[in-house]
Amino acid sequence: MAERTERQAGGTAGAPWPARIPVGVLDGDGGGSVSRMLERMRRSAFQGRKLGEAFEAWTRMIDGGSLICIGLAGSMSSAGMWPLVTWLVERGYVDLVASTSANVTEDLLEQRGARFYQIDPDHVDDAALWRAGYYRFYDHVVSAADYDAMEDFTAGFFERLAATWRGPSIPGVRLIHELGRWLDAQGLGRSIAATCARHGVPVFVPAAPDGPLSEGYRTAKRKGPVVDFFRDYEIALAIMDRFMTPARGTSAIFLGGGVPKDFLQITATSVCAIRGNGEASPHGAAIQITTDNTVFGGLGGAGVGTECISWGKEAPDGDNVMVFTDLTIALPLLCQGLLERYGPHHVRPARAGIAADVAAVLAGADGAQTSGQG
Prior knowledge:
By secondary structure, the protein is of the alpha/beta class. The protein folds into two domains: about 35-105 and about 155-370, Deoxyhypusine Synthase; about 115-155, no CATH class. The protein has helices at about 35-40, 45-65, 80-90, 110, 125-130, 145-155, 155-165, 170-185, 190-200, 210-220, 230-245, 260-275, 325-340, 350-370, and strands at about 65-70, 95-100, 115-120, 135, 140-145, 170, 205, 225-230, 250-255, 285-290, 315-325. The strands form three sheets. The chain has a six-stranded parallel sheet, sandwiched between helices. It has a three-stranded antiparallel sheet with strand order 3-5-4. α12 (about 260-275) links the parallel β9 (about 250-255) and β10 (about 285-290). α2 packs across α13 and α7 packs across α10. The model is unreliable at about 1-15 and about 370-374 (pLDDT under 50).
């Protein structure tokens, strides 16, 4: 819901390690320059090297047949990152999404006509922003009236759902699917939820009340059904169990950390427990882009190539890369690099088969419900 309190090159001969080479501006007309730069950065150092490694790891995911999961945390949509997420979904580079509530609702603001404005975060009077009617996201603001109207707008979805859903409960993943269908019908088809619904990509929002949807639910004139988040987890496990095999596997891309990262990772530990053979069922590859620090004990900074292995969440021999940087820097570069690597019309070859398998699991979940969408 709205925060009402804030208005407003190869190895060197004789050496056992790959060479570190200087990163320079690439000559030419710029065609393919980001992709080539990321490849070169792979042989540089520090987080530039890690960004290059992440690019290579992501291309291997795309070229392979694993289920690619993505976690969306942080204030991505307000920062204007949502078109990159829908672009990834449309090309089949993402097969399953776990997100915060804000990221699958705040992308509606611009599509509904709201505008964001840049401000200087070091020289801003937040009390004045409150009086002027603006909410602040660090270095950008949006009209409080527009934000509140977006929250109230989602009440229409809950009213529609209450009128048409025939059962007493609904899994969270189906709730977001129905939200996507409703948004598409409202002319908001570019949103993350609508794009995922059209492409059969399930969206799990484990903390759905922690965002604008809760305010929409509060203001809805008619409410129902009850959202069953535990059923949601069972559905996620059914999908993961189908893919967590040596021949197929799962991969994870964590944009930030938080609940989406935790949700995607604990599926691995639960699949292991379900199988009961003592063998880990980790994601075979993982990329995380975060500014969280590893030393304070939070999951957000837990290394996908280190600490997470002890839980069986990630594979010891996996293609695991931690990139410690702002995702608003890394994600546009990675997506541009993928565009240049694969071309403007590329769709991942494994997409159709994966989508069919995911659809079969979701259909089975719907069959277990004594309800349906009218």
